Amino acid sequence: MKADFSKIIKGDKPVLVDFHAEWCGPCKAQSPIIKQVANAIDGKVRIIKIDIDKNQSIAQRYNVRGVPTLILFKDGQIVWRQSGVQTKEQLLSIIKQNI
């Protein structure tokens, strides 16, 4: 996944990464919001979910200390980062600023 992840975040469109864990209650609350955002942005941003327990090296590389942590990448660079549950409106606003 490490090599693929680097390619994905350097792709031709911004990438919203949802760092989550199966055991995380707030992550379960964030998941349907992410789905709503995905439907609203109509493919303008790629959205991927990274389970921190299955991808510890990626989580460590980006210093993910709590979940959920959302990071928006553009051209391989972090343009926005936030931990904790985010609303659909917050996410759409950030995405619109960066596409």
TrEMBL record:
NCBIfam families: thioredoxin (TIGR01068)
Keywords annotated in UniProt: Disulfide bond, Electron transport, Redox-active center, Transport
Organism domain of life: Bacteria
Transmembrane segments annotated in the record for this chain: none
Keyword field contains Aminoacyl-tRNA synthetase: no
Protein name per UniProt: Thioredoxin
Every Thioredoxin domain range: 1-99
Family: Belongs to the thioredoxin family.
One Pfam family named in its UniProt record: Thioredoxin
